What we know:
By secondary structure, the protein is α/β, with parallel strands linked by helices. It has eight helices and seven strands. Helix content is 45%, strand content 15%. The mean pLDDT is 96.
Amino acid sequence: xxxxxxxxxxxxxxxxxxxxxxxxxxxxxxxxxxxxxxxxxxxxxxxxxxxxxxxxxxxxxxxxxxxxxxxxxxxxxxxxxxxxxxxxxxxxxxxxxxxxxxxxxxxxxxxxxxxxxxxxxxxxxxxxxxxxxxxxxxxxxxxxxxxxxxxxxxxxxxxxxxxxxxxxxxxxxxxxxxxxxxxxxxxxxxxxxxxxxxxxxxxxxxxxxxxxxxxxxxxxxxxxxxxxxxxxxxxxxxxxxxxxxxxxxxx
Length: 251
């Protein structure tokens, strides 16, 4: 199990105060890492850290303010030490007919879900490359695998994340930085369970095209993130791992 042991590693999880981000933070701690969760809502982050325990810390940040990201990374490394792992999980959603999406709305989703991911990855990589080691885990979506109506901006951004994973892996892997991506399928969170239970037709469609015929658990995504960040995935870079019960290949 030593290859999966993250003792002594420092992990930054964006959007780590709730949902899949919180689950990933919890799983990283289970495998020995120290974790910093970042987000905009201090009260949510504070509550999350109380649940996560002494191995967790938080930092309040609005990642859509791209100009502040270099100082944010500098502050994290000065206060907590060198980052070993970055998990780009933070994101926002917009459900709306494509014809009704304004340029400002589209740009806002792309800024948070794509531009901020690149800016943060770039600044963290500036620190990792001289050390010749590090792992960056992107978080994509089933929206990057097939067309889903009413989420055009989100789909555009998540599709870009998949491409960015490959391009950055080619550039930075020679310097010892691995970049990989997780594409979660339909995961049983409080929000998704409520949405699917209120829409039996959609729930039937989701399960009908999922070969494993069930929703995933948040810890399924957390374990995948730990694997990609750990030495167990030491020869894996530029990969996108669907954690979806087979949904993306279901018929």
